Each structure stands twice: as C-alpha cells, then as structure tokens.
Amino acid sequence: MSNYWNSYPDFLHNSTAPLRQEFKLLAAHEGWGPKGSRFKKEWERCAGEEFSHHFGREESNLSGWQAMCAMVRLEEIPDSITQCRKMLREETWVNIYDLLDARRTGEPVKLHPSAAALRRYTKDTKKIFPKRAAKQNRFLKVLLIELL
Q: For residues 134 and 144, is the Cβ–Cβ distance under 8 A?
C-alpha cells in the first residue's frame, strides 16, 4: 500500500479498486468537494504517489522501466533503460490512469494504436493525469503526450 493511503488510517482503502473511484470515496469520506482546492491538491498528490508506489521514482531503476514495459505487453522486455524509454515513448500509447488501474486491478491495460487515438480517448474520458504530479516523476514524463 502506498504511503498516500497510510495518511488516512480511518479510511478503508481497497488497493484493487480503480484509482479515481477509490480517491472519490476518500474525498467523500474526508468531505472534500470535487470543486475545492483541497480535492485538487490531494488528487495530484495521490496520483503521483500511487504511480511512484507501483513503478518507482528513480529514473535509474531498470526494474521500474521493465515493469512498465511488461504492463504494456511488449513482446520482448528491453534490458536497458534507454531501450525501455524508447519503446515506451515511440511505440506505446497508454493512458497513465489506465496503466495504474491495470496494476491495481490485475486487468490488462487498454492500449491505443496511435498518439491521436490516445489523445481522443484521454479527452473523451477526462482521464488527464495531473501535469504537476507527472513532472515530479521521471518515469511519467515518457508517457506524457500533448493534448492540444
């Protein structure tokens, strides 16, 4: 369980539930309105810490890169960080929330055939990962796309 959830010992956290669903339950439990600044601040913190919990924070951690490659079902998992980054940046189109939810739920991650398809999906579903949280984790940067 990530450190984020440990900050709320009175909340019964389900580590296998989709992240946004679980956070909304926490927000209701804590009385954070969805339009409030506390909600937004906590959501950014939760999303960033959840990603770090599952994949790490250190850019030099090969096992974190390989875990992401495995989650997106690459046929061959690269044996270098450079190759992992290249494959994730140039050949993989995945929504960050879907990646986290796949890790949490055990379901296969939804992949997209192109950046344009991922862009449409992300906008349509409003599954937009907080930019500030993404910039704090070097693993996440490789998965970011411009939404235009």
A: yes
The residues pairing with 111 across neighbouring beta strands, listed in sequence order, are: 94
Distance CA 120, CA 124 (A): 6
Rg of the chain in Å (alpha carbons):
15
What is the 8-class DSSP label of residue 79?
S
- Residue pair 46/40 in contact (Cβ under 8 Å)? The answer is no
- What type of residue is 142? V
What would the pLDDT profile of 61-97 be if each residue is shown by its tens digit? 899 899 999 999 998 999 999 999 999 988 899 999 9
Distance between terminal CA atoms of the chain? Answer: 35
Location of structure tokens 């339950």: 25
pTM as predicted: 0.87
pLDDT at 55 over 90: no
Residues facing 94 on adjacent strands? 111
Give the count of beta carbons closer than 10 Å to the beta carbon of residue 129.
Answer: 20
